[in-house]
Design brief:
271 residues, alpha+beta, six-stranded mixed β-sheet, three-stranded antiparallel β-sheet, 6 helices, globular, binds succinic acid
């Protein structure tokens, strides 16, 4: 059956009606993929997925990543991560040579208070952000590369993330990616830089680089580029890590629980 796609955000975001527990033929998959490319963050509500099915659907988009921090993995399912919400704006695994194409988060438990769900995830449309830049800034950014560092997020004062071992640091050396990235499937240009993960700009004095990163980060997260997702149990939400960045809102605490299963699809070398 043809999936029904409805936009749910002004900047990005759509709902796709489709039961992912059923077999998805190639034509239906291509429609889902096109809607995903158009909307950057798409949600399939009221899903009832086994771990195997979550993995199988994710694999339609490419090879799956195994997180380097073992305690983030679901026992028995190394391709399913349990890591809780990030503390800074980021695009998943941007610190890799081949960063993630997309992530697929399946909501098992969503914290609630006074009848409201907590732990929203906010997405920024980095294509719209790029297109809105003044021409002078676009020229300045052409050819520049930002340096992405996995451990950068751990600098955030209240980050609960564990310190990395030397072996994990060795596995994730700093990597430079173009600040203006071209989408490998749609050819659209977007900003690919976040203050949380980027520590400088290649060939630029450190302070100047950090200031430019902060300016671009602040530009990307202007309200007109955002979609804020309010979670429901059973949501399978997938987002495009090439052309969007996201921030999870940590506004809950035990006994309020948030449990998400995530898969992360490996992408291509940014260009
Ligand atoms: C993430 O921050 O990468 C995951 C998003 C979330 O937990 O809402």
């Amino acid at each position: 059956m043809k999936p029904v796609v409805t936009k749910i955000g002004a900047a990005c975001g759509a709902e796709i009606v489709c039961d992912l527990a059923q077999d998805i033929d190639e034509a239906t998959f291509r429609e889902i993929e096109a809607a995903f490319h158009d909307n950057l963050a798409v949600v399939f509500r009221r899903q009832n997925l086994s771990n195997e099915r979550h993995i199988e659907f994710s694999r339609r988009f490419g090879e799956l990543e195994i997180h380097i921090v073992e305690k983030y993995l679901l026992p028995g399912y190394p391709h399913i991560g349990l890591a809780d919400a990030g503390f800074t704006w980021h695009s998943d695994t941007s610190y890799r040579r081949r960063p993630s194409r997309c992530s697929l988060l399946y909501a098992k438990e969503v914290p609630q208070r006074d009848g409201q769900s907590l732990g929203d995830t906010v997405f920024a449309n980095a294509i719209a952000a790029y297109e809105a830049l003044p021409e002078g800034m676009k020229k300045r950014l052409a050819g520049l590369k930002a340096i992405h560092r996995y451990s950068a997020r751990r600098r955030v004062a209240d980050s609960p993330r564990p310190k990395l071992t030397q072996a994990q640091l060795d596995e994730t050396p700093d990597i430079a990616h173009p600040i203006v990235r071209t989408h490998p499937y749609t050819g659209r240009k977007s900003l690919y830089v976040t203050a949380g993960e980027c520590v400088g700009i290649e060939g630029m004095p450190e302070e100047e680089g950090v200031d430019l990163i902060a300016e671009l980060d602040a530009h990307c997260v202007r309200p007109e580029f955002l979609y804020r997702h309010k979670w429901q149990v059973g949501d399978l939400l997938m987002w495009d890590n090439t052309s969007s960045m996201h921030l999870a809102i940590c506004d809950y605490a035990l006994p309020e629980r948030r449990l998400m299963h995530r898969t992360t699809v490996i992408g291509t070398v940014p260009f």
